[in-house]
């Protein structure tokens, strides 16, 4: 049994978001992190590995520096990592990205008892599209928004988080699951893992390695294969500073009521 965990290196949006003059993100000037939802997906895979001894493979599409992120995931407990990286893949939207990642997983080989984990969505795009699109292109059943995962042989019982409650659904492997951050708390890298992470394999798959896969066609990858594009990115204006009223007397209550009435809240 193998578990593929699809991960993405994203800009750290907790700080200031840098935007170029043309309206695109200035990724080179921003610190990067592993996408938070993807970290929950990795932790879910590692928990299953703890129980079953399965192989966990971290998979990412991105530029060369993403290797550092993948080494950190190996230090967490992943057995190996695969970086899908080539100039031909640059500019891909979610459709083209899912096409390329699906081809990469096909190239590695997916068996009948394997699972693909993805984060619910990436914080730099918030589309929640890549995971489901990978499942469609690999013709796999999918369950999204997993808040609990139980594995019993080839059957998974998934508790899905919905806006107004939960749904429990069972699915057979091979399948794809997208994970929400509420699923778990990702573990830290271990000291031994940090020492060993550079001795474990990290494979780079470029265009030449994947060009013969059925899903890879020049008109379905990169900018040419992307039916959507980002017109402009910008930092939203900051909200005004709130007003704190202290006290539990009638005068404070009257002041609060007057302020809310002025803003037409009441």
Index terms:
266 residues, alpha/beta, nine-stranded mixed β-sheet, two-stranded antiparallel sheet, 7 helices, globular
DSSP helix count? 7
| Gyration radius, rounded | 22 Å
- What is the helix fraction of residues, given as a range? 25-40%
- Classify the secondary structure makeup into a structural class: alpha/beta
Question: In words, what does this structure look like?
Answer:
With 266 residues, the chain is an alpha/beta fold. It is 28% helix and 24% strand. The chain has 7 helices and 11 strands. It has helices spanning 36-52, 66-76, 94-108, 130-137, 191-196, 207-210, 250-262, and strands at 2-6, 9-11, 32-34, 55-61, 80-84, 115-119, 142-152, 155-162, 165-172, 175-179, 202-205. The strands form 2 sheets. A 9-stranded mixed sheet has the order 9-8-7-10-6-1-4-5-11, with helices on both faces. It has a two-stranded antiparallel sheet with strand order 2-3. The radius of gyration is 22 Å and the shape is globular.
Q: What would a concise description of this structure say?
A:
By secondary structure, the protein is α/β, with parallel strands linked by helices.
Write the layout of secondary structure elements.
Blueprint: E1 2-6, E2 9-11, E3 32-34, H1 36-52, E4 55-61, H2 66-76, E5 80-84, H3 94-108, E6 115-119, H4 130-137, E7 142-152, E8 155-162, E9 165-172, E10 175-179, H5 191-196, E11 202-205, H6 207-210, H7 250-262
Parallel strand pairs: 1-4, 1-6, 4-5, 5-11, 6-10, 7-10
Antiparallel strand pairs: 2-3, 7-8, 8-9
Helix pairs in contact: 3-4
